[in-house]
Amino acid sequence: MEFLDLPNRTLKNRLYGITSIADFGTPIGELRNILNDFHQFIDIAKIGIGCAYVTPNIEEKIKLYKEYNIKPYFGGTLFEKCYYQQRLDEYVSKLKILGIEWIEVSNGTLDISLKERLTLINKLKKEFYVLGEVGSKDAEKDLPISEWKDEINLLLDAGCKYVITEGRDSGTAGIYDRNGKVKDKLIEEMTKNVDINRVIFEAPTPKNQMFFINSFGANVNLGNVKLQDALVLEAQRRGLRSETFYLEDIQCKSPL
């Protein structure tokens, strides 16, 4: 069914216009059914929080994502737990055994200095594709706008493939206030002189997603998307929802 004029979408293996879903324990059978129908809309799969450490069938899950050309990685909380317990070497070894090619370096829970994160990225980028993250899971911590921008650029320069802006799976921290409202002034200033095609905005709800789609276009990178929302998000990107009905046919808008 291709007779409407809709915004053009990048196709897999896309470098931007990425949808990164969050898997918080989806059963294998359910996952297989969802991916069979909607895998073309999903690029990256985060096995969220520390779930990967206690998932009984983690090898099967990783294999399944790879079969559908989706890049799996483990959430930053597990990285931080390993960092805290000084077990990063064991963590890295396990990722290699499992065939995981992506790693997140975050400081959402721990206060890991930017200098230390840059050092880790420079080391890890030799063996992995690195995802950096900016922002805290603590709604009380309010990073100055200038620091958001500086950190994003420094993480990208250090070798991160993408930088994730913290939003939590609840959408109540980082780039959102505690009530779940996007900090639009932060987004406006933060994205000036930043390559937004290499920024993944955590947007766990359709309301969050539509804000970024209307601000930056159909091919904005979005993360922490619920697995079951992959199809709805794709419809939103194509202007097939009331809130994105008049979306322009553009690849990616300039910052706000």
Automatic annotation (TrEMBL):
Coiled coil: none annotated. It comes from the Bacteria. Gene3D superfamilies: Aldolase class I. Pfam families: ComA. Belongs to the phosphosulfolactate synthase family. This is Phosphosulfolactate synthase.
